[in-house]
Amino acid sequence: MASAFRLLDEAGLEGVSLRKVACQLGIRAPSLYWHFKSKQALVDAMADALIHDVARDVPAGQSWRETLLQLAHEFRRAFKAHRDGARVYAGTYLATENVMRVAEVTISSLAQAGATIDFAATTAMDLIYYVLGFVIEEQSLPENGAGMEEVEATFLAMAEARFPYCWQARHFLTEPDLERRFVQGVGLLLDGVALRLPPPADGR
C-alpha cells in the first residue's frame, strides 16, 4: 500500500496503475493481481487505508455536534494526507471495519441525540459529501496560486465595473482562508442538523 500511495503522491490518481505499483515493488504485474483484481480494487483499498485513523478516539459523553465536528476535521486531514486523497475516496463503496466504525460513531451520536435512524444515516453521508467536495476543490487549487493572476485580474475588473457585491467580497473571494471556509461550512451544516433534533433534556 505504501508503494501505491507513493505513486499517488508523485503522479496523482490518473498515474496510479497496477503495472506501475508492481514496477515500484520490483515484481511482475500478474503477481499483484493475486491481491487486487483491478485498479478499482486497488483504489478501494487505498480509500479504506485513508480513513484508518478516523473516529478512533471519540470521547465518551461528547455531544453529537462535537463528535461530527471532530469527524469532519479528521476526514479532511485524512483526505489531505495524500495528493488526490479526496478523489481516491470519492465514488468508492466499501463495507470494511474502518467504514463501519465511522458510520457507527456518526449514526449513534445522532440517534442518541434523538434523531431518527434514517435522518442520522443520511446526515452521516451528508457530512462526508461536504468534506469530500471541499477537499477536492482544495486539492485542485494551483500551488501558490500559480497561473491565477490573469483570472484574478479579470475578476477584479468585472466586479468593480458591474458586480458590486462581488466587489465588496473581493478580498474573501481572491484571498481565500480555507480553514475559515471549512469551519463555517461545517457549522452551517450542523446548525441545520440541530434544527431537526429534539431540544436537549436540560433545555439548553
Summarize the structure.
By secondary structure, this protein is mostly helical. The protein contains twelve helices and no strands.
Description:
The chain has 12 helices and no strands. The protein is mostly helical. It is flat.
Topology:
Elements: H1 2-11, H2 18-25, H3 29-32, H4 39-50, H5 64-80, H6 85-89, H7 97-111, H8 117-140, H9 149-162, H10 164-168, H11 170-174, H12 178-195
Helix pairs in contact: 5-7, 5-8, 5-12, 7-8, 8-12
Identify the quaternary structure here: single chain
Let me know the average pLDDT: 90
Tell me the span between the first and last alpha carbons: 47 Å
Radius of gyration: 21 Å
Largest sheet: none
Query: What would you call the shape?
Result: flat
In DSSP terms (H or I, runs of 4 or more residues), the helix count works out at 12
Helix content: 55-70%
Share in β-strands: under 5%
Find the structural class using helix and strand composition.
Answer: mainly alpha
| Regions with little confidence, pLDDT below 50 for 5+ residues | none
The SSE order reads HHHHHHHHHHHH
Number of DSSP-assigned strands:
0
List keywords for this structure.
single chain, 204 residues, mainly alpha, 12 helices
